[in-house]
Automatic annotation (TrEMBL):
Species, as recorded: Corynebacterium hansenii
Residue ranges occupied by any Ppx/GppA phosphatase N-terminal domain in the UniProt entry: 26-308
Lineage per the UniProt record: Bacteria, Bacillati, Actinomycetota, Actinomycetes, Mycobacteriales
Matches recorded under CDD domains: ASKHA_NBD_MtPPX2-like
Name assigned to this protein: Exopolyphosphatase
Signal peptide start-end: none
InterPro entries noted in UniProt: ATPase_NBD (IPR043129), GppA/Ppx_hydrolase (IPR050273), Ppx_GppA_N (IPR003695)
Length: 337
């Protein structure tokens, strides 16, 4: 068929996936990942306080996106979709951001598209469950970003039973609560209270007890599993489909909260720029574990089975893979029409 490019610009990072899609001799589509890259650009830096995207942040995005466009051009990418989430949704100078993306992606006639929390969750779900077996569902997919976290429960075929996007993420919590490094107990407690309020909304809106497998995706989850495994370098093949059990993860998370950013940054699995906001992501995941434990306790009280195993299965696939899948669907629909 062709080569597709997906770009996701979130609050903390901008990432790109280039995928080659061909039809095999048996007629089945074969997807081959050519490039998956990420750069920390902190687009959402200060947005929570100022309501606007900082000039320096926009320049960081410009540099990274220009490099991505050059690579997509060199790889012969024919169709591109770029999505923008959380940080750019409400910024007062968002038009400046979109004009920049339109200029850089002019070869493909596209610009960044702001997507809703629901669409972000659906795209993340589609990508995250791709390498699991259908019978492992229903799945609860959790995408912890810089500004928001998406929680979606659904089946392998994409049928959604419930989803919610809540404004808690690694950058948002760090800037709002975790000012010092390592953060003192009062800052951590304030962040935990905020997360508890957000996860309560998820408990009330999403049928967590119906899930059989919990899937965590994006940088906080993948970095935590790299730390848990004691990897000497960031190895996607070792991280993908690995498991983080709640008990051990709580101990690891506490050790992260007790460690200053400079020391965290020295770990070779820590992507440059992530250490500054890692504590915020860890507090989010602590709150998510509390949420699932509460869901299980409620299920037990009602006499139903303990439906949600208290462990995260970590996926290296995420919203980027969901975007590519959507581009493939569009190409097939046009061919059939």
């Amino acid at each position: 068929m062709t080569r597709f490019g997906a770009v996701d610009c979130g609050t903390n990072s901008i990432r790109m996936l280039i995928t080659d899609v061909r039809r095999g001799d048996d007629g089945v589509l074969e997807l081959t990942e050519l490039h998956r890259v990420m750069e920390i650009v902190r687009l959402g830096e200060g947005v929570d306080a100022t309501g606007r995207l900082a000039d320096a942040a926009l320049e960081r995005v410009r540099g990274a996106l220009t490099n991505y466009a050059d690579l997509m051009r060199a790889e012969g990418v024919e169709a591109v979709r770029m999505v923008a989430t959380s940080a750019s949704r409400d910024a007062s100078n968002r038009d400046e951001f979109f004009a920049m993306t339109r200029e850089i992606l002019s070869d493909w006639g596209v610009e960044a598209q702001v997507i809703s929390g629901d669409e972000e969750a659906a795209l993340s779900f589609r990508g995250a469950v791709d390498d699991f077996h259908p019978e492992e569902g229903p799945f609860c997919v959790i995408d912890v970003g810089g500004g928001s976290t998406e929680v979606i429960v659904g089946d392998y075929d994409g049928t959604v039973h419930g989803a919610l996007s809540v404004p808690m993420g690694s950058v948002r919590l760090t800037e709002r609560f975790l000012v010092d490094s390592p953060p003192p107990p009062d800052q951590v407690e304030a962040a935990r209270r905020y997360v508890a309020d957000q996860t309560k909304r998820v408990l009330e809106s999403v049928p967590l007890a119906g899930a059989r497998t919990i899937v965590g995706c994006a940088g906080t989850f993948t970095t935590l599993t790299a730390l848990a495994q004691g990897l000497e370098t960031y190895d996607p093949s070792a991280i993908h489909l690995s498991t983080l059990r709640f008990g051990a993860l709580r101990s690891l998370n506490q050790s992260v909260l007790d460690t200053d950013r400079r020391t965290l940054a020295e770990n070779p699995v820590m992507h440059p720029g992530r250490a500054d906001v890692f504590a915020g992501g860890v507090v989010v995941i602590d709150g998510l574990m509390d949420m699932f434990e509460a869901a299980n306790a409620e299920a037990k009280e009602k006499g139903t089975r303990d439906a949600v195993p208290l462990e995260f299965h970590v996926s290296e696939k995420d919203i980027l893979d969901g975007i590519v899948a959507g581009l493939v669907d569009e190409r097939l629909a046009r061919a059939q029409g």
